[in-house]
């Protein structure tokens, strides 16, 4: 039993998790379907989005340099980090130089990827998560289970109990409005009093040096404008050439994620407070993080760099819908996570992720940037096989089967005998227990093979 | 004009349910085709390909290409096996110009049987009667790799007496996934359990689909649960063989 299998089976045994995942992902699936139907030629829009990303990824260096020059011209400081550790070290150094005691953080999966919450804790810097779902995760001391709904694994009742246990003046009424008010009371002063505001970036705009964030709660704006310093950590693949490109990607992102036409708040941050501005931070730092992305481009995973982190692949994944996000064990769950986690955390310990997929292709069908996720997963399977990471039993079994199957004159008698033996295990057309295929018969019956193979029957019928 | 077509039987149909192969022959002959069954065929190599075993996948692909390339069309009673030949054989040989051109030639004339009957032959079953209510599951590879959706429905609608109950989530994977269902039995079971719920909820007598792997998964689950729904490959009904034993029934 692997860690993944254990976690997946624990998830399957949790009926509340199933309800929670189904509620959120099911609603998202339905709303996305309506939004896409109402969109004129979504297929063409997907192709354009994929082309924009491919163009940027192919010319990444040039666009990053353009972004850097424009961000600096707007008054921001730009930092480059090759690894997660380098990125965290840069962020912590900025915080220390600013004498920061507290950080208000607007949800960022890149921050999770590089381990920023942990790095802040180690440095003794207080952190308040200001996205409502991240706030729930922070109170529960858990990790996000979905890239856009970090707390999707929790039901409203569970959140209510958590707020009552952890908030200073929790809600009295069991209504969503009262719970939201309780979170607002808890978070607002912390946001306004933070020394540093931190965010990721949904898009980096090369020709203006702007950083775009989208939220539905307005917490990014409230976390990033009042504090003295704004620190952005962003993956280098987040770049788009210009505002019209960003707008196209935003149309794809919101619809694919939640089915909404646009998020409630879409903000472009271009440098710190300028002379005459009424508010805004005194300093803006942008940390551009590679953390394996350049290597992905070189090693056949360039298409994965198109990803705009909408979550549609996981919302529509039959496996994710059964086991939720935590079972995957990495920062990113679902199909996109199964492709990315081996990059970030290594292939050998994450071999299950690349196999726990039926290759049904739904994720690719809904991906707004046409990432061929099943093909990329199969690419990982090829690599795992080449590198000898697949279990010996699997290699031996497939090898024997292929050895026979590539010899048709041997294959016929061998399969005829095998099917006869298999038939003996069944009665009345069905086999209830099959050695070597316990995974099948534990949960379902196996139809008994025919008395004679097609090839045998066919030859008899055609014999003159 | 008579077309000579080669039937690629597929290993599952050969070993588990030959009826599907004979149904394909019967329908193709009714549509005016001469059907031959090339001798040196076994498996298309999909299990190796999906497991990362590229060498064995390539060996089986070469054997299949050699067996099938003499014919003007290759007909397969499975969306996923047809998809392997049509979509993935050329990928296997992307760095081997000689085999790539042969793989592309075979890929270009390989058809899933119902798509071929509908799109190429323009044929419909005539005089086939079956009083039953059926529901249809769209197997994923056929649907997403080959665009098989309307073709089986058009053919099935020509059967007198057959009525249809739509399946909620008809395009949702049944949880088979080849080796997936034995590697991750608990997850697969949860998925096929929901599929069986949806099938039972239709009130249909028959479950139809175009891929034996998916059908074995769903039928096996339905049988374990004691459901009365009987499962057939759609081509069996189309060929007028819907009155015979369903999957898991003895003749």
From TrEMBL, chain A:
Residues 303-371 form the 4Fe-4S ferredoxin-type domain. Residues 399-458 form the Lactate utilization protein B C-terminal domain. One of its GO terms (biological process) is lactate metabolic process. Keywords: 4Fe-4S, Electron transport, Iron, Iron-sulfur, Metal-binding, Repeat, Transport. It comes from the Bacteria. It holds the Pfam family LutB_C. Signal peptide: none annotated. Residues 64-289 form the LUD domain. GO terms for molecular function: 4 iron, 4 sulfur cluster binding. InterPro entries: 4Fe4S_Fe-S-bd, FTHF_cligase-like_sf, Helical_ferredxn, LUD_dom, LutB/LldF, LutB_C, NagB/RpiA_transferase-like. This is Lactate utilization protein. It comes from Sphingobium cupriresistens.
């Amino acid at each position: 039993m692997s860690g993944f299998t254990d976690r997946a089976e624990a998830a399957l045994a949790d009926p509340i998790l199933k309800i929670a995942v189904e509620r959120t992902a099911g609603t998202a699936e339905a709303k996305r379907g309506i939004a896409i139907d109402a969109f004129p030629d979504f297929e063409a829009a997907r192709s354009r989005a994929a082309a924009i990303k491919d163009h940027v990824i192919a010319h990444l260096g040039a666009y990053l340099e353009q972004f850097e020059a424009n961000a600096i011209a707007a008054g921001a400081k730009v930092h480059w980090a090759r690894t997660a550790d380098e990125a965290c070290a840069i962020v912590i150094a900025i915080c220390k130089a600013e004498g920061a005691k507290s950080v208000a953080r607007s949800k960022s999966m890149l921050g999770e990827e590089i381990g920023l919450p942990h790095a802040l804790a180690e440095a003794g810097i207080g952190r308040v998560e200001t996205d409502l779902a991240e706030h729930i995760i922070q109170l529960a001391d858990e990790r996000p289970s979905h890239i856009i709904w970090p707390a999707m694994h929790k039901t409203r009742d569970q959140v209510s109990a958590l707020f009552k246990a952890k908030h200073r003046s929790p809600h009295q009424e069991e209504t969503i409005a009262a719970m939201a008010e309780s979170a607002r009371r808890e978070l607002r002063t912390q946001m306004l009093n933070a020394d540093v505001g931190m965010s990721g970036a949904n898009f980096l705009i090369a020709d203006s040096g702007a950083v775009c964030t989208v939220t539905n709660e307005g917490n990014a704006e409230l976390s990033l404008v009042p504090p003295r310093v704004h620190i952005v950590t962003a993956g280098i693949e987040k770049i788009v050439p210009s505002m019209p490109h960003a707008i196209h990607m935003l149309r794809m992102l919101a619809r694919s994620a939640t089915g909404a036409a646009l998020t409630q708040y879409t903000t472009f941050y271009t440098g710190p407070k300028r002379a005459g501005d009424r508010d805004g931070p005194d300093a803006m730092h942008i940390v551009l993080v590679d953390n394996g992305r350049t290597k992905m481009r070189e090693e056949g995973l360039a298409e994965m760099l198109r990803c705009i982190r909408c979550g549609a692949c996981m919302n529509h994944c039959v496996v994710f819908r059964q086991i939720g996000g935590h079972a995957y064990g990495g920062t990113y769950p679902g199909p996109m996570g199964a492709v990315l986690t081996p990059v970030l955390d290594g292939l050998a310990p994450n071999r299950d992720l690349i196999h726990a997929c039926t290759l049904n292709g739904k994720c690719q069908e809904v991906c707004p940037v046409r990432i061929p996720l099943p093909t990329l997963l199969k690419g990982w399977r090829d690599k795992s096989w080449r590198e000898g990471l697949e279990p010996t039993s699997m290699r031996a079994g497939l090898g024997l089967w292929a050895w026979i199957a590539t010899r048709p004159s041997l294959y016929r008698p061998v399969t005829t005998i095998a099917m006869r033996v298999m038939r003996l295990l069944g009665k009345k057309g069905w086999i209830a227990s099959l050695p070597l295929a316990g995974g099948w018969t534990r949960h379902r019956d196996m139809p008994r093979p025919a008395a004679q193979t097609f090839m045998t029957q066919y030859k008899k019928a055609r014999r003159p | 004009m008579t077309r000579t077509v080669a039937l690629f039987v597929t290993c599952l149909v050969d070993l588990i349910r030959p009826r599907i192969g004979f149904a394909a022959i019967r329908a193709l002959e009714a549509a005016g085709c001469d059907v031959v069954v090339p001798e040196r065929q076994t498996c298309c190599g999909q299990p190796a390909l999906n497991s990362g075993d590229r060498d064995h996948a390539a060996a089986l692909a070469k054997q299949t290409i050699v067996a099938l390339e003499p014919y003007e069309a290759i007909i397969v009673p499975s969306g996923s096996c047809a998809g392997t030949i049509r979509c993935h054989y050329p990928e296997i040989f992307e760095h081997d110009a000689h085999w790539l051109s042969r793989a592309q030639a075979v890929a270009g004339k390989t058809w899933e049987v119902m798509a071929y009957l509908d799109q190429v032959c323009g044929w419909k079953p005539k005089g086939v009667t079956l009083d039953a209510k059926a529901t249809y599951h769209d197997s994923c590879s056929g649907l997403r790799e080959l665009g098989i959706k309307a073709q089986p429905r058009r053919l099935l609608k020509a059967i007198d007496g057959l009525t249809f109950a739509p399946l909620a989530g008809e395009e949702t994977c049944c949880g088979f996934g080849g080796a997936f269902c034995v590697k991750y039995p608990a997850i697969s079971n949860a998925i096929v359990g929901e599929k069986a719920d949806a099938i039972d909820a239709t009130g249909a007598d028959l479950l139809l689909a175009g891929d034996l792997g998916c059908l074995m998964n769903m039928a096996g689950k339905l049988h374990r649960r004691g459901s009365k729904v009987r499962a057939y490959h759609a081509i069996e009904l189309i060929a007028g063989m819907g009155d015979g034993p369903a999957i898991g029934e003895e003749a």
